[in-house]
Amino acid sequence: MSAKKEPDRQPGISADIAERIRNANLSNLIKKVKSGKTLTAAEIKLIDEAESQTARKGSATPKIPDTAQSMSQAASIWGIPKNILRVAKASGCPAFVEHRIHRDALLKWLDENPDTATKGETISDASELKRQKLQAEVELLRVKIDMQKRDLITMAEARAEWSRALSIGQEEAKNLIESDVYRVFCERWKSRCGEVLPT
Q: What is residue 93's DSSP assignment?
């Protein structure tokens, strides 16, 4: 008489606890994707297994596609930032075939080339710095053009012009107004503007 062999069970972990651990891991993976981080091949496999279990239970959850038609689509469905995809393609990743991107080949290549994420950030930072530099150069060019057209003048030129205009106005006022009236004008000017006019 032969005894029936019991299915292998890990001691100390019930099916309920194992399910909770799996759900917590999936929740952490969702947070990782939302924060813009790249999933490893093992993490993608865990998601695929969870989807196949859900599908067996009768849920209508769609399976994550293993091929993307563009970098935008790949970034959207797999959570891999575009700048990392650009670096991978430029570095000769075999996942890029014609206009398609193959997920498994991409994940394998990213696992084998972990420095790609850092290069992607560097490229992103460099392009942002180039954009800021170009913007500053355009603003400087606009100022130079406005100064050549005399739409803008320097602060020193503005002060000199204001001082010259004020001096001319004072001379004219002094010549036009009788001396008593001019003295009253000077006193009022001093009380309002704080400047002493020549008498």
A: -
Distances from the Cα of 137 to the Cα of 140, 144, 169, angstroms: 5, 11, 40
- The span from the CA of 199 to the CA of 196, in Å, is 9
**How many whole angstroms separate alpha carbon 95 and alpha carbon 108?**
9
Per-residue pLDDT of the chain (199 residues; tens, 9 = 90+): 444 444 444 455 666 676 777 777 777 777 777 777 777 777 777 777 777 766 566 555 556 778 888 888 888 888 788 888 888 888 888 999 988 999 888 888 888 887 765 665 555 556 667 777 778 877 887 877 777 777 777 788 888 888 888 888 777 776 766 667 777 888 888 888 878 877 6
Total-model pTM: 0.34
Task: Identify which of 107, 99, 100 has the alpha carbon closest to the alpha carbon of residue 43.
Answer: 107
Write out the two tokens for 52.
Answer: 């196949």
What sign has the CA pseudo-torsion 98, 100, 102, 103? positive
The answer to whether 82 and 75 are in contact (CB under 8 A) is yes
**Sheet harboring 96-97: ordered strands across?**
67-68, 100-102, 96-97
